[in-house]
Specification:
The protein is an all-alpha fold. It is built from 17 helices and no strands. The two termini are 39 Å apart.
């Protein structure tokens, strides 16, 4: 209890929420804790509920109107997806789908609760960004180590490349945000390290998503008055070039080997899609058979034998055009966050939802989309609080 009081009750609850986010469907048998596939998220969800009950952190203020509107869209989408379970082709898959989409909404609600526990928005965003930056360093150490020791791409050992790439991109943009906010060149090096690690992981969707996300960010930054007003720490350019040179010397060969194998050879020369082009085609064929309401929650596993690796196709297969119409307002926030964070210090973080939507169209299922509502709610809350402060002034 003394340790919890030392870091703050609001931070303690937020740490458990972040652990729940990162855990995903990780099972404890992977690290030998249990002999059966117990998912860590259920323990963390129970711990989060217990921490709220025991610690009773006080809400400093209410969720802003922008955050409440997003939660309304999330509730409508969740309702549509849950309703589609009523006509699913597989009751077992429907139950799994109910768990996935219900948990997505629960995570959104818990995020909306946690952001209200902080008095100042910068305290919240700094805390979250620092945690992701440190996780990025830990992931990078594992990725770099496995890439240098082997002949293939890097790995975090306990997780897949697609999930790890998402975390590393969040860590990279969190580090870039902290560099500008705190004027510490160490975060610039962390930013570069995470980008190199993304390449070493070799997730094609992750690399493409990171490339698009960074391009959008730096193009918007080029035209941003807010960025031009910010002054970088002294000798930041030298630090950037020194870090880039050092990482290129140490990791350049390994990074190029992975990039050449995964991007140049498989996407440009051979155009190998690991069978996902077939999944996309089969998904579109199925959707044309029941375009309005789809086939019911989780039916794609029965009909395709796999999930479609595309969030829009997954939603359409589950709930048809009705599901897509419910999902579109949520997807729009990927661009909206870039626009709203433009000219603010949150600009590096504002591109994360866009990245999450991009990679959701190449890999993963709805469960891997959980970072999207988290960042949207956090950013909306901080931007709303910032605007309210300007109005009072």
């Amino acid at each position: 209890m003394h340790m919890v009081i030392g870091i703050g009750r609001n931070r303690a609850v937020t740490i458990v929420l972040l652990a729940l986010l990162i855990a995903g469907e990780f099972t404890l048998d992977r690290i030998g804790v249990t002999d059966f596939a117990l998912e860590a998220r259920w323990i963390l969800l129970a711990l989060l509920a217990l921490s709220v009950i025991v610690l009773q952190p006080k809400q400093k203020h209410k969720l802003g109107s922008a955050g409440r509107i997003f939660m309304l869209f999330a509730a409508c989408f969740t309702l549509v997806m849950i309703t589609s379970s009523l006509y699913s082709r597989s009751s077992e898959e429907a139950v799994m789908g109910l768990i996935t989409y219900s948990l997505l909404f629960v995570i959104s609600g818990l995020t909306a609760y946690c952001v209200t526990l902080f008095t100042k928005p910068n305290e919240l965003i700094h805390f979250i960004a620092r945690i992701f930056s440190r996780i990025g360093v830990a992931y990078s150490i594992m990725v770099v180590g496995t890439a240098l020791l082997g002949e293939g791409r890097g790995s975090i050992v306990i997780g897949g490349p697609n999930v790890a790439t998402r975390v590393l991109f969040m860590a990279a943009m969190s580090s870039l945000y902290l560099f500008w906010a705190m004027q510490r060149k160490l975060y610039l090096q962390t930013f570069l390290l995470c980008l190199f690690s993304i390449i070493l992981l070799g997730s094609r969707g992750g690399i493409i998503g990171a490339g698009v996300g960074l391009t959008v960010h730096f193009l918007s930054a080029f035209f941003s008055r807010g960025y031009r007003r910010m002054k970088a720490a002294p000798h930041s350019g030298i630090s950037l070039m020194a870090g880039l040179l050092a990482l290129s010397i140490m990791l350049g060969d390994a990074a190029w080997r992975v990039f050449s194998n995964r991007i140049v050879d498989l996407l440009v020369l051979v155009q190998h899609s690991a069978g996902r082009d077939r999944l996309f085609y089969d998904s579109l064929e199925l959707i044309s058979e029941s375009p309005l309401i789809g086939f019911g929650l989780g039916s794609y596993n029965t009909l395709l034998g796999d999930y479609p690796h595309n969030i829009f196709l997954e939603v359409a297969l589950n709930a048809g055009i009705i599901g897509i119409l419910a999902f579109l307002p949520i997807a729009v926030y990927s661009l909206l966050m870039v626009r709203l964070s433009y000219n603010t210090e949150y600009a590096p973080l504002g591109v994360i939802p866009l990245y999450m939507l991009i990679v959701a169209n190449f890999s993963g299922d709805a469960n891997d989309f959980r970072y999207f509502p988290f960042w949207v709610i956090v950013l909306l809350h901080c931007l709303h609080a910032q605007q309210c402060t300007k109005v009072r002034q």
